[in-house]
Write a structure and sequence with these properties.
CATH superfamily: Vaccinia Virus protein VP39
CATH topology: Rossmann fold
Distance between the termini: 43 Å
Strand content: 25-35%
Number of helices: 8
Helix content: 25-40%
Number of domains: 1
Largest sheet: 7 strands, mixed
Length: 262
């Protein structure tokens, strides 16, 4: 691994480090853990599987227009949405200004425009002020070793629910190996009334959790497979595999239609 740069840090924030290995540029926050990755020969692709899995919200809200992202990292998700999903207007919140600087200097994050608004701001505060305005909320906020606790409290999850429009979905990147995973999952279950689906990553410990605000989406298997096939053709992401993994990874929660995966 070759280190390219070590940026400064703000008060109480982790240092931002950039490295490269085997043709992939990596972002680290105060430690060796990889926060973001960009293949130099394909800088606008989603290199990490969990980032592709987070985009599976399109299976449930293909018509989404207003989307917010908490936790920018190297900007992989923001770049992909901006480049490949022109119908979406994305607001990205990142509390560490050095992360935003690194994303623009080293990871080709574009400047703000009519469809992309990257802000140096507190994501929790943004969500608290965002009453029923979002179709989709993506939460991917970690420090060097764990999820940011302010973005995993019952109060924050309540704010996420309020921020969604009816039929909206909040998407959380969690770590199955985190000793507090079951705590976070239980909080989401309580706040969202059990209306959750999980999508585990195939190779690493990430578990992407989709939390739905009623009315709930249709989960008819042929419908989802057909939608997945179209999205896979259009975007080059493995949506058909994600649909099968959703069916194999979820028991029918109470209150869902009979066609729920299980």
């Amino acid at each position: 691994m070759r280190f390219l740069s070590r940026l400064g840090r703000g008060p109480g924030q982790a240092s931002v480090e950039i490295s490269e290995k085997d043709g992939v540029r990596l972002l680290h926050l105060g430690g060796p853990a990889v926060q973001s990755a960009m293949r130099l020969k394909a800088p606008f692709d989603l290199e990490l599987e969990y980032t592709r899995a987070m985009l599976a919200f399109l299976l449930f809200r293909p018509e989404a227009r207003e989307v917010a992202l908490i936790g920018l990292g190297g900007g992989s998700i923001a770049k992909f949405i901006h480049r490949r999903l022109p119908q979406i207007r994305l607001t990205a919140l990142e509390i560490n200004p050095e992360v935003v600087a690194a994303a623009r200097a080293y990871f080709l994050l574009p400047d703000n425009d009519a469809r992309l608004d990257v802000r140096v701001a507190d994501g929790a505060e943004y969500v608290r002020q965002c009453e029923a305005q979002l179709d989709v909320l993506l939460v991917d906020a970690y420090d060097a070793v764990r999820i940011v606790e302010d973005l995993a409290t019952p109060e924050f999850y309540q704010a996420c629910l309020r921020a969604l429009r009816p039929g909206g979905v909040a998407v959380f990147n969690l770590w199955g190996s985190d000793h507090r995973y079951e705590v976070y999952r239980a909080r989401l279950e309580m706040v969202f009334g059990g209306h959750l689906l999980q999508l585990p990553a195939e190779k690493k410990g990430n578990i992407v959790v989709f939390a739905f605000k009623p009315p709930l989406p249709e989960l008819d298997r042929p419908l989802l497979r057909g939608r997945a096939e179209r999205l896979e053709r259009d975007l080059g992401l493995e949506f058909t595999r994600f649909v099968e993994r959703l069916y194999s990874s979820n028991r029918p929660p109470a209150g869902w239609p009979a066609s729920t995966p299980g």
